[in-house]
Specification:
Chain lengths: 464, 464
């Protein structure tokens, strides 16, 4: 078929009827009788299919036999206003070409309700469903909005390394990378693995955060952001954990904790409103199919100013509440999800940015307050999912940073370069991390993080 | 300093003089006498510094002592038209705050010429140099242009997995990933590594290409693209090889090889012209400092239509040329860089897209031509660097694909899901891969691929 293919999303919104068009896509359903057949065709450009009307007598019954759910076809026909209900336009087929059949006796995606659990097992096919089409389009638009936002701010996309010889947080389970034959590792005289013979000449891991390298970028280019894959070798089989996920980490020179909070709020509101504008149909589909509070939650974030709340004040509010919590409340605890949700959903009824955490529950690199016991960390707390962003102003004073590292008995052998940034032209700076899948969960309203990434990596699963 | 910080790139182009401004950045140089001091300040937003004029008597000589190359400072002052040559505006300082000193006796980046080799050793500091500032800003704008282009085409950013249990090309050196204790691996009764006890329950590697998973996306969403890190465990210590690099792989349903070639040409022209527009100063700096043919090369690509050239015709031209080549020419060879450059730089004098390669030098998944000996692969050949893009129309026929796999004695145990796309609703489709660093090399005019990524990973080097 030589006519230029039109995307269905464009045809559904065109005011320009009564013209010949060509569409190509996958059959969702076919129904009808011996005279007329209706095909719902989807090409992935939108959750909505376009209706193809086929004159069975004219095109021949035989040509329709293999047009079953999942088959791939091309249609030339006339685009007309639809007489039927439920759609605005339809195509009267002149010509049909079959690219690929999908034998109903073996094709797993038939026209019926498939559970999300079942679809997870056939992750290689699930992008062809309406649900995952919606999720993946939203995922795209969120990613695009993130680049657009930071580009507009004048921040530069900075590729921090995936393979690393240092551990960004002084903790965390990491995957090891090697090109040694692990069945038969070369050993040193002491019986240790001889890493001088490994590809990089040392032991290497998959990164758990790009922040420390990101700081190097910020202290040179002013403002940077990362957007790349991050890995955790935690054997947590939960709806909230992935071994491989994507993370966004802006880092900005000359930003203090207040600038950082303002940025986080503005950023989240921008990307969520972008998604609501450009993924309207997809969000509506998910709202109506899975989670009828979804749009409400999104508007909740957009229409409220995020409350700034010191940790100590948060503890006071929780202590004085009459709520029964599973975990006890006292100054020094790491807040649990139940506490965060109480503050956001019941007490303030708006997103909360909590700051000035006890230093003992936060990372070594956070800027120390003068009180000697708190640091300028910040967590952005959302309804339903709790923490969506974690960040801080960074300790820019070389001596204070060294002292804290000593207190924590950390080895900084592999991080001398990080400390050097505080020796050479140090500057106040801040940043935060946003787990991309956490964001996609929030904007799609899905419950399981394995449903918002194309090919989830979890314990015992690296398929496709 | 409570005044809002202005970015130097904005001040250098403002028509709005004689107002108080605040700038923050790193000192490139300071010179002057006992009455007046000139500081060149850079904040990473542009390659150009802004000149700060300091009345030494007014601000006190002592306050200036630690303002040496690399120090980080904040300035409040009056933005005025410059009387000096070489700059349009300058700032008359009212107030200076020192954020961080950079002791000249230890700070490695002094005001002198540093070789690229030396800067590679201090990769953690080199973003602070003019050269790497330019490269990294260009890198950002190219990445942004890529997202912008595909978004406009209606293609969706699709995250293919980094950790994989399959080898995309049936070849290639891969890094292994594990959370086993490799010094003491669990073994099966047969003495093999017991991968059932590894994190994913099987042997896993870092991906060498997202293409195969990308095809799953394209055959559901219509058009997708990937942009993520790719890994090769090849011990090649050359200016063209990295163990970790970034790759862009669009994959589009219903595109044939001609659509694919048109897309590749339009795409490359778009992103290169975007860079020339948004990175004008940076490209000029690199042109004038390292490679005075850079801008010429970029214009060469923009102003010429890319020639479409069948491999067989290319061989004929090479055979009939009077050029002396190191490697012999005959039908069936994989072209060498010298051949590609002859065709591009001497014969056609324009970029070339070569197609219809002998099947034996290309991958199993390329669409087979009717002649039984060629496939619909395509390489885009550029001046100076040779192949910048490699792609193909994919074999969409299940039987032909199976037959080819058998011919090649490939094991497809881990790729049943890939074959399934040809069983269920298969469609003609095409795609290509662009090595991002190869592109950045071309647009920056740099010679060594280690100089166009922030933290290069190469044999024996995973530092920072």
């Amino acid at each position: 078929m030589k006519m230029k293919r039109a995307r269905i999303v464009d045809l559904l919104s065109t005011p320009d009827f009564n013209r010949k068009v060509c569409v190509k896509g996958w059959v969702r359903t076919r129904r009808g009788n011996k005279n007329i057949s209706f095909i719902e065709l989807n090409d992935g450009s939108t959750v909505h299919g376009i209706q193809i009307v086929v004159n069975v007598v004219k095109l021949g019954e035989d040509s329709l036999k293999s047009i079953t759910t999942g088959a791939c076809i091309a249609i030339n026909g006339l685009l007309v206003k639809s007489k039927g209900e439920g759609q605005k336009v339809e195509i009267q087929a002149d010509e049909i070409e079959i690219y690929g059949i999908a034998d109903p006796s073996v094709y797993p995606l038939q026209k019926k309700w498939h559970s999300l659990e079942f679809l997870r097992e056939i992750a290689y096919l699930r992008p062809r469903t309406n649900t995952f089409g919606c999720i993946l389009r939203i995922r795209h638009h969120l990613a695009y909005a993130i680049h657009k936002y930071f580009n507009k701010q004048g921040f530069f996309y900075f590729h921090t390394p995936i393979i690393t010889s240092s551990d960004a947080e002084g903790a965390g389970s990491m995957f090891q990378i090697t090109d040694l034959d692990i069945a038969n590792c070369p050993k040193t005289k002491d019986g240790e693995v001889d890493y001088t013979r490994d590809f990089f000449g040392c032991s290497t891991n998959l990164t758990v955060s790009g922040q420390l390298e990101g700081e190097l970028g910020a202290l040179a280019l002013g403002g940077i952001y990362t957007f790349g894959p991050i890995f955790r070798a935690e054997k947590s089989n939960t709806p909230r954990h992935l071994a491989e996920f994507w993370m966004i980490e802006p880092e900005i020179a000359f930003y203090d904790i207040n600038d950082n909070m303002d940025l986080a709020e503005d950023f989240l509101k921008y990307i969520i409103s972008y998604a609501m504008k450009y993924c309207k149909d997809d969000i509506e589909f998910l709202n109506n199919t899975y989670n009828n509070e979804l749009i409400e939650h999104l508007n909740f974030v957009l229409s409220n100013r995020f409350v700034r709340l010191a940790y100590s004040e948060g503890i006071r509010i929780l202590e004085q509440s009459n709520e029964e919590f599973e975990f006890p409340i006292y100054w020094g605890i790491d807040l649990q999800s139940e506490h965060e949700r109480y503050l956001v959903e019941k007490y303030f009824k708006c997103p909360v940015i909590m700051t000035n955490y006890p230093k003992d529950i936060k990372s070594f690199y956070m800027k120390q307050n003068d009180d000697g016991r708190t640091v300028r960390g910040m967590d952005v707390l959302f309804p339903r999912i709790g923490e969506i962003i974690g960040g801080s102003e960074r300790e820019s004073d070389h001596q204070k940073l060294l002292k804290r590292i000593k207190e924590l008995n950390m080895s900084m052998d592999n991080l001398w370069w990080y400390l050097d940034t505080r020796r050479f032209g140090t500057a106040p700076h801040s940043g935060f991390g946003l787990g991309f899948e956490r964001l996609v969960l929030f904007v799609t309203g899905m419950q399981n993080i394995r449903d918002v990434i194309p090919f989830p990596r979890t314990p015992k699963n690296a398929e496709f």
